[in-house]
Specification:
This protein is α/β, with parallel strands linked by helices. Helices cover 41% and strands 20% of the residues. The chain has an 8-stranded parallel beta barrel with strand order 1-2-3-4-5-6-7-13, surrounded by 7 helices. Strands 10-11-12 form a 3-stranded antiparallel sheet. Strands 8-9 form a two-stranded antiparallel ribbon. Strand 3, helix 4 and strand 4 form a beta-alpha-beta unit. The radius of gyration is 18 Å and the shape is globular.
Amino acid sequence: MRLVLDARTAAFAALIDYAGLFPPSSLEMHDAVATYRQLRSGPRAWVAGRFLCRTSQLRDLAAVATSTFASGEHPWEIGAIFDLPPGESAALAADFHAEMEPVMTVATAEARLVDPTARSLSALLDAVFSVGAEVVPYIEVDRAHPVEHQIGLIADALDARHRIGGAKLRCGGERPDLFPTPSEVARFIATATDRKLPFKATAGLHQPIRHFDDGLGVWQHGFVNLVIASALAATGASLDTLEAAIAETDVKAFAMSTAFASWTSHEIPGSALRRMRQSGFVAYGSCDIDEPIDALEELGFIGEGA
């Protein structure tokens, strides 16, 4: 990660968790590990976050890592995605963590809140925290139920346990109905910010700015839109303002400089972006990191064109 922090570094450092194992890339384990390793050793490493892996694939990851890890290689942080029943996923993650530490550590655990009740959430958090004392949970909300209520449950449960954790929003997928509206995303960000709850996003965020996908016939969200909206939320901006920032499709409405990120008449200094990234929009998962970084460079938001 870069040592000199400006608005661009504050906005994009470690923003993209690598999800090469997941659709649409769906790489084999060996290929995903090799791709992530190459990324971490190159000039774009500062944008890369954690390596995301389903708990059902952690044994495969351990086998590949054991045979390929180089002497002196910097340790990896793993985001464990619970894809099995919580107890089973937690046991696999705990075994992996114990076996691979310090070469690889389970830093975060991401799990869906299938039943949005306090009892179900408590059981899910029990499972996550059994993995390790330092593991940070991110609980994915279910859009079929009131999101504000679920964020409240998550925040209250974490407060009661005096533990750090956050919420997670799915922003897309392989079907149009998996893409939330700008209003839904705005309400998620606003509620999480009000509750001082960090959050992640996943799926559908391949390009910086909101755009139309002809193949799916749907508007796809832009990750820069979410960064800007999250920073505005931290300043107390209205829900209408957040929704407008998320819905913005005009690339020229956004700008990045060493001092500020801006959208229309709103300017956000690097210091505010850094605070937001620490306690608000922490990261998002993408099966490809080169595509979004290429797009940022083409826009002049990072790289030589910035």
